[in-house]
């Protein structure tokens, strides 16, 4: 894809150039057009005007490039961001079947993952560990960190193409995610399902094709077979679409992994992922996956007021460690998936 695709689509919008001498991006693969940049005409221009004047361009660019960064617009409160995201025509989604802790800021708007500042969150497509996910995701930087705290992104099509063929083929057969919910080691099931009513949890699991088991101590275990790669419903392009490298024990620090395996046993780890046939995924394969993700990573610094809109299947996102206060909020919309596939 040419680096000037965004400017070709609309004269007021530009894609980040490929050479890294620009201050916009600190890291990017050659010829990457992600994200396209839409800048305000001047200070104080309301964010809603970007929707009113540029909606067609934004929609087209998100579908082609994978994401648009809106910069320089006035976003005086989170409610303005919420209205902008909702204006694209789909009700904002609640964060169901969560895998990380978040807080509800307002209806349909959540904090970004509430992990400690020193931790890195690897690239992932939102809720790719399930069989239903949002097609659209928006991020709004309310407060930029003093250092770090970027939201790296990557083209999921490019990841798929770069991934070694043998790994692509193995993942195409599907994955099985295993989760053991225990408040001592991970997010408890009450927070994951937004309820303490077991009947509601079971109803969700039946609808979503999730196997479940209640344990004697009141905790819960779920198993779900999901996709490893997917075809985009509009473009027909294949994308790398899973969270195997996050759920696999190799994502843990070596000493933490060893302690958990000794304490709980491999079958009772808070989370794990297996091949569709139930066989373990080798650590070495996940290292190859992580290397490809790193090669496709795009990093740019946040500025307060920025809004990033992504096609959640075309673009993955992450978080770097940071120093100082940081506030980034998230909204999601347009559910899509393959709930009826086994």
Automatic annotation (TrEMBL):
**Oxidoreductase keyword on record:** yes
A GO molecular function annotation here is:
2-oxoglutarate-dependent dioxygenase activity
Domain named TauD/TfdA-like: residues: 48-331
One GO BP annotation is: antibiotic biosynthetic process
Q: Which UniProt keywords apply?
A: Antibiotic biosynthesis, Oxidoreductase
Coiled-coil boundaries: none
Among the Pfam families in the record, one is: TauD
- Classification via SUPFAM superfamilies: Clavaminate synthase-like (SSF51197)
Q: Which domain of life is it from?
A: Bacteria
Name the InterPro entries on file. Answer: AlphaKG_dependent_hydroxylases, TauD-like_sf, TauD/TfdA-like
Record keyword Cell inner membrane present: no
What cofactors are annotated for this protein?
Answer: Fe(2+)
Q: Which PANTHER family match?
A: GAMMA-BUTYROBETAINE HYDROXYLASE-RELATED (PTHR10696), TAUD_TFDA-LIKE DOMAIN-CONTAINING PROTEIN (PTHR10696:SF56)
For this entry, the protein name equals Clavaminic acid synthetase (CAS)-like protein
Task: Name the source organism.
Answer: Herbaspirillum seropedicae (strain SmR1)
């Amino acid at each position: 894809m040419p680096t000037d695709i965004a400017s070709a689509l609309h004269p007021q919008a530009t894609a980040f150039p490929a050479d890294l001498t620009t201050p916009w991006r600190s890291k990017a693969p050659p010829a990457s057009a992600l994200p396209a940049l839409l800048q305000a005409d001047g200070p104080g221009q309301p964010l809603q005007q970007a929707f009113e004047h540029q909606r067609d361009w934004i929609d087209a660019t998100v579908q082609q490039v994978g994401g648009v960064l809106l910069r320089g617009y006035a976003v005086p409160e989170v409610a303005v961001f919420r209205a902008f995201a909702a204006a694209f025509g789909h009700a904002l989604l609640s964060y169901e079947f969560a895998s990380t802790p978040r807080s509800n800021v307002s209806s349909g708007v959540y904090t970004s993952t509430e992990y400690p500042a020193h931790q890195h969150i690897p690239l992932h497509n939102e809720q790719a560990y399930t069989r239903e996910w949002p097609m659209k995701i928006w991020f709004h930087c309310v407060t930029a960190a003093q250092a770090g705290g970027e939201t790296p992104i990557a083209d999921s099509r490019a990841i798929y193409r770069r991934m070694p063929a043998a790994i692509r083929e193995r993942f195409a057969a599907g994955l099985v995610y295993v989760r053991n919910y225990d408040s001592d080691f991970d997010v408890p099931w009450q927070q994951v399902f937004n309820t303490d009513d077991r009947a509601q949890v079971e109803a969700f699991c039946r609808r979503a094709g999730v196997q479940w088991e209640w344990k004697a101590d009141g905790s819960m275990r779920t198993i779900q077979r999901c996709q490893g790669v997917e075809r985009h419903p509009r473009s027909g392009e294949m994308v790398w679409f899973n969270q195997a490298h996050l759920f696999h024990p190799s994502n843990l620090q070596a000493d933490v992994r060893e302690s958990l395996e000794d304490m709980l046993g491999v079958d009772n780890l808070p989370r794990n992922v297996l091949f569709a046939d139930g066989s373990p995924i080798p650590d070495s394969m996940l290292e190859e996956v992580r290397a490809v993700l790193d090669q496709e990573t795009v990093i740019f610094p946040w500025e307060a007021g920025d809004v990033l809109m992504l096609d959640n299947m075309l673009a993955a996102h992450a978080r770097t460690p940071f120093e100082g206060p940081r506030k980034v909020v998230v909204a999601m919309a347009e559910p899509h998936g393959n709930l009826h596939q086994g």
